[in-house]
C-alpha cells in the first residue's frame, strides 16, 4: 500500500485509527514528542488486541496505523494486530524509528512484523541521525523494500529552507529514485522539544477565522488505551474530557467511530476549526490547539442546535467533499511543510 493511499484517507472521518502500542523507545531523540525512554509506560497487549478484535467487515477503519514510542519493541503484537485487521479488510501501517538498524541484521521477530503489515514508515530527521546513522537507515530501508513492502519516510524539519532537509532528501532521491515517498512535517514544541523550542509562530494570534482541523478525523488510541479525538500529545497529557472518546479496554470500534462522527463539538472543530468554534461559544480563542483544549465541554450542548441545522449539514458535506477532493497532498500542504507535500506522491502507482 502506497503512502499516498493512506494520506488520501486522512480526511475521512473514521477512515483510520492510530494506536500507540508503547511509549517506550531505546533511542533518545532531542525533539521526541512523546518524551520516550525505556522506562516509559506500556499497557498490556490484551487492551489493543481486544480493541482491534472489535473491527467488523461492515464496520471497520480502512487503515490501522501503529506507532509508539517504538512500535517494533512489540513485534509480536504488531504482527498479531495486522493479521487480525487483515481478516476483516483493514490494512496496517507501522511507524518505526528503526532502532534495530544499528544491528548487523534485522531480528527475525521484526522481520515477521514487517511481512505482516501493508506499509512500513520510518521516522528520520537531524535529531534522529546521531541515533541511527544515515548509511544504516538506507541499508535497512533497502532490505525492507527487497521484501516487497511499500515504505515511506516521515521527516521533520525547521522549515522549507532547512539545509539538513534539502541534503537528506537529495540523498534519498539519489539512492532510491522515486521509490521512497516522504512526509515532511515542521518541528513543533511538544515533548522534549518543548524544553528548548519556542512556541509556534502565530499560535497565540487571536483570530476567529474558520480553519478546520482535519486531525480530528481519525481517533487515536494512546499508550494506556485511552482513545482521543486526535494525536496531539498534549491531549494525552492533559486529557480534556471533550477530546476523549473512550477506552480501548472497554469500548469497541463501532462505539468509537460513532462518537467520532456524531460529537457536535468534534464536528464543529472539523468544520469551523477550534478558534471559530470557541468564538461561537463565547470562549477565548488564543492559539489553535490551545483554544481547542480549553473549550468548555458543557458548552458543547449549545453547539448541537447549530450543528443539527440542515444548512450546517449541507455545509459540512460540502467541506468534507472539498477536503477529500484535495487528497493527501492537500492534507500535507495544510498540516506539513507545504513545499514538500508533493514528495508524498513519489512512486505512486498510476
Ligand atoms: S525514535 Fe521516535 S519515539 Fe524514539 S526517541 Fe526518537 S522521536 Fe522519540
Ligand atoms: S485543534 Fe484540537 S482536535 Fe485538532 S489537533 Fe489540535 S487539539 Fe487536536
From TrEMBL:
InterPro entries on file: Aldolase_TIM, rSAM, rSAM_sf
Record's keyword terms, sorted: Iron, Iron-sulfur, Metal-binding, S-adenosyl-L-methionine
Ranges where the Radical SAM core domain occurs: 21-157
UniProt-recorded Gene Ontology molecular function terms: catalytic activity; iron-sulfur cluster binding; metal ion binding
Coiled coil residues, start to end: none
Cofactor(s) needed for function: [4Fe-4S] cluster
Short name of any one Pfam family annotated for the protein: Radical_SAM
Protein name: Peptide modification radical SAM enzyme, YydG family
Organism, as annotated: Jannaschia rubra
Amino acid at each position: 500500500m502506497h503512502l499516498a493511499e493512506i494520506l488520501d484517507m486522512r480526511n475521512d472521518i473514521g477512515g483510520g485509527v492510530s494506536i500507540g502500542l508503547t511509549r517506550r523507545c531505546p533511542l533518545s531523540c532531542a525533539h521526541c514528542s512523546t518524551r520516550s525512554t525505556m522506562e516509559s509506560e506500556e499497557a498490556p497487549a490484551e487492551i489493543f488486541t481486544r480493541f482491534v478484535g472489535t473491527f467488523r467487515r461492515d464496520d471497520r477503519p480502512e487503515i490501522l496505523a501503529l506507532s509508539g514510542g517504538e512500535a517494533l519493541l512489540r513485534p509480536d503484537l504488531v504482527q498479531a494486530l495486522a493479521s487480525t485487521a487483515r481478516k476483516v479488510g483493514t490494512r496496517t501501517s507501522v511507524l518505526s524509528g528503526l532502532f534495530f538498524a544499528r544491528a548487523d541484521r534485522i531480528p527475525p521477530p521484526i522481520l515477521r512484523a514487517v511481512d505482516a503489515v501493508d506499509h512500513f514508515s520510518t521516522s528520520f530527521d537531524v535529531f534522529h541521525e546521531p541515533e541511527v546513522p544515515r548509511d544504516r537507515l538506507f541499508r535497512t530501508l533497502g532490505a525492507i523494500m527487497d521484501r516487497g513492502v511499500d515504505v515511506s519516510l516521515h521527516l521533520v524539519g525547521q522549515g522549507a529552507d532547512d539545509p539538513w532537509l534539502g541534503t537528506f532528501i537529495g540523498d534519498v532521491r539519489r539512492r532510491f529514485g522515486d521509490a521512497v515517498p516522504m512526509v515532511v512535517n515542521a518541528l513543533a514544541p511538544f515533548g522534549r522539544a518543548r524544553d528548548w523550542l519556542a512556541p509556534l509562530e502565530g499560535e497565540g494570534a487571536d483570530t476567529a477565522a474558520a480553519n478546520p482541523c482535519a486531525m480530528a478525523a481519525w481517533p487515536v488510541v494512546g499508550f494506556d488505551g485511552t482513545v482521543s479525538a486526535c494525536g496531539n500529545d498534549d491531549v494525552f497529557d492533559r486529557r480534556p474530557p471533550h477530546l476523549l472518546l473512550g477506552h480501548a479496554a472497554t469500548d469497541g470500534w463501532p462505539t468509537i467511530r460513532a462518537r467520532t462522527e456524531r460529537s457536535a463539538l468534534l464536528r464543529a472543530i472539523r468544520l469551523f476549526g477550534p478558534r471559530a468554534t470557541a468564538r461561537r461559544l463565547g470562549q477565548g480563542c488564543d492559539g489553535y490547539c490551545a483554544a481547542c483544549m480549553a473549550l468548555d465541554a458543557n458548552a458543547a450542548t449549545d453547539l448541537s442546535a447549530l450543528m443539527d441545522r440542515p444548512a450546517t449539514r449541507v455545509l459540512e458535506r460540502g467541506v468534507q467533499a472539498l477536503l477529500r477532493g484535495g487528497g493527501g497532498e492537500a492534507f500535507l500542504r495544510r498540516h506539513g511543510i507545504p513545499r514538500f507535500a508533493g514528495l508524498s506522491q513519489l512512486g505512486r502507482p498510476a
